[in-house]
Amino acid sequence: MFSLVKSSCNFTQREWLYVCAQCGHQLFSSRSKYEHSSPWPAFTETVLQDSVSKHEERLGAFKVRCGKCGNGLGHEFVGDGPKKGLSRF
Ligand SMILES: [Zn+2]
After folding, report:
1. 19 CA → ligand 1 middle, Å
2. Ranges of each domain in the chain
3. How far apart are the CA of 13 and the centre of ligand 1, in A?
4. Cα torsion for 16, 21, 24, 28, to the nearest 10°?
5. Stated pTM of the model
6. What are 41-72's pLDDT values in tens digits?
7. What is the pLDDT of residue 17?
8. Which alpha helices (H) appear in the chain, and where do they start and end?
9. Which superfamily does CATH assign the domain made up of 2-77 to?
10. Which of 36, 34, 28, 22 is nearest to 52 (CA)?
């Protein structure tokens, strides 16, 4: 879950990184964070191509896990981002 994710600061790029609470794998950056009505932080994209692994749960919704250790992180909702064509994590 996102509530378990801790953040660390990358001073050179002035952005916050959200990493896996279990293994420290880089997941999301503050650059792709945006405000959403849900209580969880919302992101449009992951930091790395292999940041997360996805499992289609139903049409347009993927279960998202850490790409390294498999820690459950939540869901990706395709097309539910702040702009058309963007995803919400
Ligand atoms: Zn992990």
Report:
1. 8
2. 2-77
3. 23
4. -40
5. 0.80
6. 899 999 999 999 999 999 999 999 999 999 99
7. 84
8. none
9. Peptide methionine sulfoxide reductase. (2.170.150.20)
10. 28
What is residue 17's three-state secondary structure?
Answer: strand
Rounded-to-integer distance, Cα 26 and Cα 43, Å? 13
Please state the separation of Cα 62 from the chain's center in Å: 12
Q: Ligand 1 center to residue 80 CA distance, Å?
A: 25
C-alpha 47 to ligand 1 mean position (Å)? 14
CA distance 87 to 12: 27
What distance in angstroms lies between residue 4's CA and the mean position of ligand 1's atoms? 11
Measured distance CA(67)–CA(27) in Å, rounded: 9
How many Å lie between the centroid of ligand 1 and the Cα of residue 52? 9
Higher-confidence position of 85 and 7: 85
